[in-house]
Amino acid sequence: MSDFIEASELYFMQFKPLYMQRIWGGNLLQKTLNRSDMPKLEPNAEPIGESWEITDRSDAQSVVTDGPLAGKTMEELIRHYTQNLLGGLWKGGRFPLLVKFIDAGQRLSLQVHPDEAYCRTANDGAEPKTEMWYIADCEPHGEILAGLTPRATKDQLIASLASPQAADLLQRFPSHVGDSYFIQAGTVHAIGGGNLIFEIQQNSDTTYRISDWGRVDKNGKPRALHLEQGIKAIGFSNRVSPRIPAVIGETTFNRKFPLVDRHCFKVDCLRLVENQPENTGGVNGSFHLLSVMKGSIKLHRANGQTLTLEFGDSALVPAICGNYRIEPINGPATVLKSYLA
User: What is the pTM assigned to this prediction?
Assistant: First the structure.
């Protein structure tokens, strides 16, 4: 007897976060989101730096926390339900996104991710990685470094990588809650300390670290750099500002702001003050991944199913669900909707 339910019975699903220790980790996950399930660490252990909210990697699997499919991994769900879960716009393989919170207590390394063209010729197992950041919270000193300045040259960057002056060749932005950043593959970037970032990215874990600002671990050893691959992966011709400023002010009606509209994924920012009808498009469309960045919401389906989400929560709406609605509760809400199109 199968322990899977019928596809027609699929429902709004939540997953258990996977917490990752990082040398640069901070305390905003606990301070801002008050996560009660975070692991208790030894006094000298590296802090938590990432919370992987949705992941389908061979070494990191999201597990359903609610309903009759509780305990199932994302890999198992996809293998069993295929397009009923992810929709006809999914082209097969793993779940196409990796979604996480980044809790930066210190500045992350200066890094770059490869694009599809690089990966086709590299033959080193690299996977393309374009990503989007949403600033969920930040300290007053928080900043973002992303994209080379218009006058920075390749030779200048290479010459400066062993010194702090490398930061002067990047576009720098003070952090503001609600700002977003589109980090196209090939963009040199570093998240500054004092940021809690919600990141939506292609399902890839390929990062080329080209500078770690002289940082060493608790044993006095520096982390590995990937200079040759990183320099080759940089898109030196792209000098566009990656910042997408937040829309300031309250609204008296629902509004949708497209943040990312690329071949690999789409993200809309929904600012809601009343019920919002949504439709996945059924098995010919796409799943919706909903992530609450402000307030709280309740999801509704015509069959009576509901799910309440608070700030920091994410839920997967299977493609087969079709029509549903989002209700903001206890005031306005901000929701990121990620999907394929």
Answer: 0.96
Cα torsion angle, 23, 28, 29, 31, sign:
positive
Instruction: Map 47-73 to HEC letters.
Output: CEEEEEEECEECCEECEECCCCCCCCE
What residues have CB less than 8 Å from 306, skipping those under 6 apart? Answer: 298, 299, 300
φ and ψ at 86, to 5 degrees? Answer: -105, -20
Asked if residue 180 lies in contact with residue 101, where contact means CB atoms within 8 angstroms, the answer is no
Give Cβ neighbours of residue 138 (< 8 Å, ≥ 6 apart): 175, 176, 177, 194, 195, 196
Amino acid at 251: T
Long-range contacts from 60-69, C-beta under 8 angstroms, 24+ separation: 60/18, 62/15, 62/16, 62/18, 63/15, 63/16, 64/13, 64/14, 64/15, 64/16, 65/14, 65/15, 65/16, 66/13, 66/14, 66/307, 67/11, 67/13, 68/5, 68/9, 69/4, 69/5, 69/13
2's CB contacts (< 8 A; 6+ apart) are none
Residue-wise pLDDT for 113-129, tens only, equals 999 999 999 888 899 99
What integer is the mean pLDDT of 290-300? 98
Closest CA to 184 of 239, 221, 232: 239
Q: What is the pLDDT of residue 1?
A: 41
C-alpha 173/C-alpha 191 separation (Å) is: 10
The CB density around residue 155, as the number of other CB atoms within 10 Å, is 8
Q: What is the pLDDT of residues 156-196, one digit of tens each?
A: 999 999 999 999 999 999 999 999 999 999 999 999 999 99
Cα–Cα distance for residue pair 339/187, rounded to 1 Å: 23
Residues labelled as active-site residues = 209
Burial class for 138, CB neighbours closer than 10 Å (0-12, 13-18, 19+): buried
Q: Could you give the residue ranges of the DSSP H alpha helices within the chain?
A: 28-33, 74-81, 83-86, 116-122, 154-160, 227-233
d(CA 1, CA 218): 51
Q: What are phi and psi of 232, to 5 degrees?
A: -65, -30
DSSP result, 298-326: EEE-TTS-EEEE-TT-EEEE-GGG-EEEE
